[in-house]
Each structure stands twice: as C-alpha cells, then as structure tokens.
User: Fold these one by one.
Assistant:
Number 1:
Amino acid sequence: MLISARMGESESGGARILVVRCDCGFEVRGTGDEVVERMQDHARNVHNMTATREQVLDRATSA
Ligand SMILES: [Zn+2]
C-alpha cells in the first residue's frame, strides 16, 4: 500500500481524520478509533466478519 496511515502522531494538535472504504462501497470517516469501531461494526453486521484493528487501519487513508 502506497499510503500509510500513521496513528498517534499529532498533526495540528489533534487526531487526524482517516477514511476507510469497504469492498462493498461502505465508507467511514473519522479518527483512528472511530473508523476502527465503525468498520468493525459494519464488518460484523453486514458481512458477518471480524475485522481486527490492524486490518481496518491497513485500509485507512488520510481524509
Ligand atoms: Zn462492507
């Protein structure tokens, strides 16, 4: 992956906003914790899959 999302580093003093898109087209946007939580919910509810934090962040790009 060309774009790496770095977590936990302050940029303009706040949490950076990430975008994560699912294969089905579903997209979430928010801080690292938010996108991880929402994508995990989505994966479980819609695809009956379990996504790890690493898997979610691996797909994240900067907003
Ligand atoms: Zn999906």
Note: The first strand starts at residue 18 and ends at 21.
Number 2:
Amino acid sequence: MTDDLLDRLRRFQSDYFPAHQQRFQDLVAQGQHPKTLFIGCSDSRLVPYLLTGAGPGELFIVRNVGAFVPPYDGSHGLHGTMAAIEFAVLSLEVERIVVCGHSHCGAIRAAYEGAPEEAVALKAWLKLADEALLPVQPSPEALRRTEQRAVVLQLERLMGYPMVRRRVEAGKLTLHGWYYVIEHGEVQVFDVHKGGFLAAAHAPNSGTGPYLPYVEHDGQVLCDS
Ligand SMILES: [Zn+2]
C-alpha cells in the first residue's frame, strides 16, 4: 500500500521548500508577525491560503467545528479557541480578526439535526450556534441564513473579549465576518452598516465588525476603517 501522505511530505521538502527557503528562514530569524487572526470552520473545502492569497507568516489560524467563538468567561479551562484569540491579540497584536463560515456547513446542519449520542463534546460545542438558529425547518435557504447569522454571532462574542473590545475601540483592531460560498468561489463580507453580507466583488471593504464607529462630538467618525 502506498503511503500517499508520506509522499507528499517528501515532495514538500524536495519541490516546494527550495523555492521558498529564504522566506521560511527569515520567518525563523525574525519571528512571525502575522497581521490577521483567521478563525475558520474546520471544513476541508475552506482553504484560507487560497481565499486570501496568503503565504507563510501571514495568517495566524485557529479552526474548529463551525468557526465558533466561545463566550469569554474569564475561566481557566482548556479552551483552545479562546487561548488562540488571547495569544493573537495580546502577544502577536494582530490588526484583523476574520471569522469565516461557509455554505453547506455540517456544523450548522448538525446544530439543527443533532450529533451522534457518543459525541458529547461536539453536542455541547454545537450549542454555540443556538442563538443563530431559526424556528423553521432547515431548508437550504434557512441553512444559508443560519450560516451567515452564525458568523455575525461570533463577531458579537469576540467583542465580549476584553482585549478585543479594547483594541477595537482604540482603532487598532478590526473584525471581519466572511461567508464563503464554496460552489461560487465567492466570499461575502459582512457589512455592519447595511446589516448584511455583500459579495467581495461589490463590498467597499473586507469587513468592520458589528460595532458602531466611534463618533467624536464634532461628528468626526473615528475607527471606521
Ligand atoms: Zn463548516
């Protein structure tokens, strides 16, 4: 039996690495300074590097079932996603946080239909989508709307993280809600002012998060990047 994964590991070192060696070695010498924390669903069809054209050192990525953000509770539990957010914001000082959901998301479907009885952690995890669920049968349209609502819900939860809120309000961090439509190769961007998702082709920016821009007393709008 051929070990396809082993073949790929060997090809990475022999074919890909030599052409990018300097970049990797610079990243080791100078450390990583990614500007973006990418929180994406674990779905294999969502490929952050392809969507963003990013290379090594550009994205700090945390992925989980559904691209969910647990509510900040200040606890000391083994919360991988929470730990990644804290590290990215406090230590790496990222300038953007992207939450990327997608069409045909199995997590959102499972939030309606339930998970296997034995999957105790998964069942608990899927409750993070509860507030996004609609009181209807999960039709394709309802699923799509729920997938988008879930992205916005996670952005709202991010604002519950003290270090996130602080930096957003200081204009040092922006939040970006993305909805990737796999079958169209299209990323839709949440527009907080319109309250909906716009195709990247028509969106004025890649997202600002669900917070109101800070308006000075003279009417000047700050932090509206
Ligand atoms: Zn998914």
Note: Residues 31 and 95 are 17 Å apart (CA to CA).
